[in-house]
From TrEMBL:
Residues of the MIOS-like alpha-solenoid domain: 573-821
GATOR2 complex protein MIO zinc-ribbon like domain span: 967-1076
Bias-annotated ranges (Acidic residues): 504-513
Species per Swiss-Prot/TrEMBL record: Lodderomyces elongisporus (strain ATCC 11503 / CBS 2605 / JCM 1781 / NBRC 1676 / NRRL YB-4239)
InterPro entries: MIOS/Sea4 (IPR037593), MIOS_a-sol (IPR049092), WD40/YVTN_repeat-like_dom_sf (IPR015943), WD40_repeat_dom_sf (IPR036322), Zn_ribbon_mio (IPR031488)
Keywords per UniProt: Repeat, WD repeat
GO cellular component terms attached to this protein's record: cytoplasm; Seh1-associated complex
Family according to the record: Belongs to the WD repeat mio family.
Protein name: Uncharacterized protein
SUPFAM superfamilies: WD40 repeat-like
Highest taxon above the source species: Eukaryota
Amino acid sequence: MAASIVRTPQWDDSYEQQFIAIPPLGNEVKLYLTHREDPHVESNTMVQLHLRKGFDNIQCSSYLTTQPGVLGVGSITGTVSIFNIKDQTIPEIHLRPKQPRPCNAIAFNMTNMVAVGYDKGRQDNSLQIWDIEESLRIRAGAEVTSSISTGLSTSTGLRHRAPVSSYLPNEAVLSTSFFTDSEYNLICGSYKFLRQIDLRSDAPVFQMATKCTLGLTMDPFQPNLFQSYSEDGSLAIWDRRKLTVSGGSGGHGASQKTSSSGSNSIVITESPVLQFNKLLSELPVRKIHNSCIRYSTMRRGEFAAIFNGDLIRRWHTGIVPASAENYSVGSGAGGAGGASDIALSTISEQSNSETNPVLQSLKTQASKLYRSNEDSIFVSMVLDNKTDYEKVVSFDYSPDLNSHTSTNFVCMRQSGTVFRMPVVESIEGLDFNPSNEFTIVGPEGTLTNFVSQDVGNNHQNIMDKSLKSLEKLTIKHRMRRPSDRHNPGLNGYGNYGGGKNNDGDDDDDDDDYDIETEELSTTVDDGDQSIINGGDTNREIDYRRASTDEDLVPLNKLLRPDDIFKNDICLVIKRRAAMGYALDPEINYQILQELDPNDYQLSLRNTWKWLGLAKKSLEKGTMVSEGIDLGYQGVLGIWNGAEALNDQKRIMSTGGPISNAWYTQAVRAITAAKGKKISGIHIPVNSEKKSLRKLCLIVSGWYLTEDEFEEKLQLLVSMGYVTKAAGWAVFHGNISKAIEILSESKKERYRLMATAVAGYLAYKDTNVNSPWKDQCRKMASEMDDPYLRAIFAFIADDDWWDVLDEHSLPLRERIGVAIRFLSDKDLTVYLNRIADTNVHRGELEGLILTGITSKGIDLLQSYVDRTSDVQTAALMAAFACPRYFTDPRVKHWIDSYRAMLNSWGMFKVRAKLDVARTKLSKSLNGRTTIQATPKQFYLQCTRCNKNISKPKLINMGQQAGGFNTANNQMLLKQFSKASNKRNEIVSSCPHCGTPLPRCAICLMSLGSLIPSTDAIERVHSNLTSSKPLAVKNNFKSWFSFCLSCNHCYHAHHAEEWFSKHYKCPVPDCDCQCNSK
């Protein structure tokens, strides 16, 4: 037989566990004990306690649970030896069949009876039951009254006594086991059948044809479940309650006596509750017969098996309980089988009433696949654990002292050595709360990780540290074209340069869509360092100086786990919301600048800059003309014309669809309003869409007068952005200006480049390929700076496509070049191509191209998929949705963001968001596309149960209960945003005239102002017109109620009273109002 090691839980000595081990040779039996010097400290030491030798090829073994030390082994000759391994002086008991043959299985029950399974014999049954106590009593006579109670006493064993009962002639018994909840019932398996035997009956309770008859093992936590496997490695889990109709099959008192009727019981199903086909097929065929499969003694529903001698695979199973209604029907004597009959009969009756045979067939199949009246077992998890040593042939579970659910294994190797190993457990449950704190649950307990309160304080330090660490990570592997690393930002795009410096009057229409140059905090030294766009210098890495010791950086050196949690998008969103990140683009721009001073997310900031300018332009009406609203339209939408607008609500009147002529007329009117700034724009003469090109340049912010352009170039040069200024000059078609800028630089290499660029003026009119052009092409592919690459690529072939293919340039600059120099056909192709690319990548800077349109929502969806920043997507989409169009994705983002704010308790921020969204949804004709959120509460009169703040609709001059319409208006004004008549007093219900309750402190009506408020307001009205102070003073007179004692106060009086007292100010009232 294969080696075996089995834990004996009933033999445990306090916190020490005992294991029975049979080495691979099968000639001895050992008893091992775990050894811990400190009961509170886990140890993997194993100590051999006892040893019993002298056996011949042990085939099977089992132990007696009621008497520690007593166990039995079966040999290949059929002899069963029962002995006490803890006492060598007590002789063995030997049980032998009539004909010598291999002993395949042995099992003890709780009353000192042993079942032995043999190979097939000619004149002897294969399943024999022996009563050890009875045999010892006959042998020892009156001297031994209870052999087992004295440790098998002094008997030398019985050699010729017959078993008390035997079963199954002419058939081999391969495995057997007693049910843990019944001393008279056992299960046994032969080559083709599983049978349940009741020792009080001559016939089996049931028999069932199956190949899974080996290794019968009972579930220690669920006595009705047992498992077996077949020679092909298939494993099955059975529920004995579903195997018979008879109610007396399980040894439950009197019902057992009526279970046997001399014939086999009817079998309802031959299918196990859970089956794994060829689960153990990875084992060699010769070893499958003796496979090592163990049920866990610590965890309910877990079992494990050994594979390849170095892998223990564990299966966790769970049970879906039967529905309460159906389960109660099937419970009782019949178990689940009776419930199944009722369910089947009910379905059968329903099916007979159906005339459709297809429906009847479907119902029948469904009833067989899923039965809600039965428990259903499923596999919840499968875990693999590598053993500490190879060639493991047997194992068993070993509990852990520190945790009742933690797992250890005691294993036996092929050499017979025994070792104990811990199992590295994985967590079983993980849940995050809205603050990014999480709790993990596992076998070793529960752990909650709390985020520290200084999350927002060290955010920038974390970002700086992560950047420095990433720069050191695998330097050699990060060598690539410098164009791919020109910007250390997360999105890889620079800022929008160009446009007028927006420090003038906001009412000036000429600053629409002008995007000012970023203020650069990075100082530029005189070293050999390239300057790039985007407000940051190119951090070049000298690869030649890279030390080989820094090639590899451990992962834990990049970021600590706490830093990772603090930079999670969940906390980033919360941090922004707390700082006021909402629907004001200018405030959002400032917040991002404060959170991200090093321009790690420059494209996000510039997108808000573009949205802010688009919002200003729309509010001033410069993007509305001829009844067409072009607010928040991008370059692509404007270029595509009327066809891009007809699926949106862009017209102010209820006229028909927008025609091309109507659209062209509106565009011309918008561009004409720009005056001299548009006159200086140079576009292709042969273009048929000149007005559209001009408006596209306006929307992209790429339009400047000559003076403004000159000022912008001087600003860039003064800030050290020489190559960027030269690139802008080329992008505007002024090569001479680019040469001048480079030649005036203090750096020698820029002056040399100016000489090289000057060659363009000599070769621009020739098509002959020259060495100068070859050198320009070579430099265009080798330069680090994207602007220099673009300049040399253009002057080499005089082709603007070479500039547009330089993806390191900001998108806005490439769009400006395309609008200025490409033909109408090429421009259409180019705009659609880069729009699709930006939508696919989710680059926010692409919104300048798509606008807040349906295509822009596709871009935002890709952005959310990439970053999970649902906050930004919801806020940006709210500017145009549902004002111009509706999209279910936007609604989902808004609802998700609102739910996040509510989960953080940021109700004020959520309320302001709702108000701002409602304002943004208002079209130019004054119609609001979002229904305002209704009031959540109101004051109700205790007499007429009507809303006090809602005036009663009566005719002019008519009075009701002495309260006229003027009083109604006074009450409304008193609790509105602004009320100039604060000395007017409303003290009764506008519907029934019932006086309002009085303040329990000042005894004045709650509808009146508190006495000191008038004087305060008169003083402050003369000094200042501060609105927040007026609101604060108005709040002092608001109603305040105690929901426990129902007493009322002015809010200001209640605040003053409960700052010094705990109890209610009303006499004889002991209510602690402020503690409720």
